[in-house]
C-alpha cells in the first residue's frame, strides 16, 4: 500500500470514527419521534403486534380521524398562545436584559436571581393562586389567561439568556454610534439589537416549545373554549384503552409547526445555542 492509499484509509477511518457516534446520538434522540410517526401510520393490529413491526402497510386513517375531530381547534389555540406569549416575553425580556447589561442597579444580582427563580418555581406551587385570581377577574377558560401566565415564566428565561448576549456586544460600538448622533433608543435599535438576533431566535424557539408542551396550567385554567392540544390529548383515552394510533397522529400534528419554525431559524438557533461563537 502506497503513502496516498494509506492517507485515504486513515482519513476514511477517521470520518467513520467521527460520524458513527454522532449518528448514534442523533438516532437515540430522534427515535421517539420516528416511533411516533410510525405508530401514527399503523393499523391497530400493527400497533399492538409483538414483536413490534418495522415493516408494515401504512395507513392515513389515524390522521383522518384526528382531522375530522375537534383536536385541530386546540392545536390552533396552542399555536396562538405560544406565539403571542413568546412575542410578549421577547419584547419585554429584550428590553430588560439590555437594561441589566448596560446599567448598574442597586441589588442587581439579587434582582436577577429573583427573576431566574420565577423560571425555577414549580408550577404546582402557583397554580391554585392563579386559578383564584383569574376566576375573580373573569379570565378562566380564556387564551388571555394562558398568555399572561406563560409570559411570566418565559420572560425570566429570556432575560437571563439575552443578558449574556448583550454583555458580549462591545461597548465601543455603542460609543461610536453615540458620537454619530444616535440617542439611547437609536443605539439599542441599530447597534445592539441586530447583534443579538441569534439569542432572540433561541429564546423564541425555547419559549414556544415550553408553551406548546405545557399541560398542568392549561388543564386547570381552561375548560372548553381555550383548551390546548396537550390537554385535548386526554380525549384519546377511551374506555377500551389508549388510542395509540390517534394520539400519535395528534402528537405529530402538534410537533410539526414547532419543528418547521425551528428549521426556518436554524442558523440563528445554532449560533444562539453556542452563544454566538459559530459564524
Automatic annotation (TrEMBL):
Alphabetical list of PROSITE patterns matching this protein: ABC_TM1
Limits of the ABC transmembrane type-1 domain: 75-265
GO biological process, one term: transmembrane transport
Transmembrane segments: 16-38, 79-100, 112-132, 144-166, 187-209, 244-265
Subcellular location: Cell membrane
InterPro entries, per database record: BP-dep_ABC_trans_perm, MetI-like, MetI-like_sf
Principal subcellular localization: membrane
One of the Pfam families matching this protein, by short name: BPD_transp_1
Alphabetized SUPFAM superfamilies for the sequence: MetI-like
Membrane-topology descriptor: Multi-pass membrane protein
Family: Belongs to the binding-protein-dependent transport system permease family.
Name of the protein: Maltose/maltodextrin ABC transporter, permease protein MalG
Amino acid at each position: 500500500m502506497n503513502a496516498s492509499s494509506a492517507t485515504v484509509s486513515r482519513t476514511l477511518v477517521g470520518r467513520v470514527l467521527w460520524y458513527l457516534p454522532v449518528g448514534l446520538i442523533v438516532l437515540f434522540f430522534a427515535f421517539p419521534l420516528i416511533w411516533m410517526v410510525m405508530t401514527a401510520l399503523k393499523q391497530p393490529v400493527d400497533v399492538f403486534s409483538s414483536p413490534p413491526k418495522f415493516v408494515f402497510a401504512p395507513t392515513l386513517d389515524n390522521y383522518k380521524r384526528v382531522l375530522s375531530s375537534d383536536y385541530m381547534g386546540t392545536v390552533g389555540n396552542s399555536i396562538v398562545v405560544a406565539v403571542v406569549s413568546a412575542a410578549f416575553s421577547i419584547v419585554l425580556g429584550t428590553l430588560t436584559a439590555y437594561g441589566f447589561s448596560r446599567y448598574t442597579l442597586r441589588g442587581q444580582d439579587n434582582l436577577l436571581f429573583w427573576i431566574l427563580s420565577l423560571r425555577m418555581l414549580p408550577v404546582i406551587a402557583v397554580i391554585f393562586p392563579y386559578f383564584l385570581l383569574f376566576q375573580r377577574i373573569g379570565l378562566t377558560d380564556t387564551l388571555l389567561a394562558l398568555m399572561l401566565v406563560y409570559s411570566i415564566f418565559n420572560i425570566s428565561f429570556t432575560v437571563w439568556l439575552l443578558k449574556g448576549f448583550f454583555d458580549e456586544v462591545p461597548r465601543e460600538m455603542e460609543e461610536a454610534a453615540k458620537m454619530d448622533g444616535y440617542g439611547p433608543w437609536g443605539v439599542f435599535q441599530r447597534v445592539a439589537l441586530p447583534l443579538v438576533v441569534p439569542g432572540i431566535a433561541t429564546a423564541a424557539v425555547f419559549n414556544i416549545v415550553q408553551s406548546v408542551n405545557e399541560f398542568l396550567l392549561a388543564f386547570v385554567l381552561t375548560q372548553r373554549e381555550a383548551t390546548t392540544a396537550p390537554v385535548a390529548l386526554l380525549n384519546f383515552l377511551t374506555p377500551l384503552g389508549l388510542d395509540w394510533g390517534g394520539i400519535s397522529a395528534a402528537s405529530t400534528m402538534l410537533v410539526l409547526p414547532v419543528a418547521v419554525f425551528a428549521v426556518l431559524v436554524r442558523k440563528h438557533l445554532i449560533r444562539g445555542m453556542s452563544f454566538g461563537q459559530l459564524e
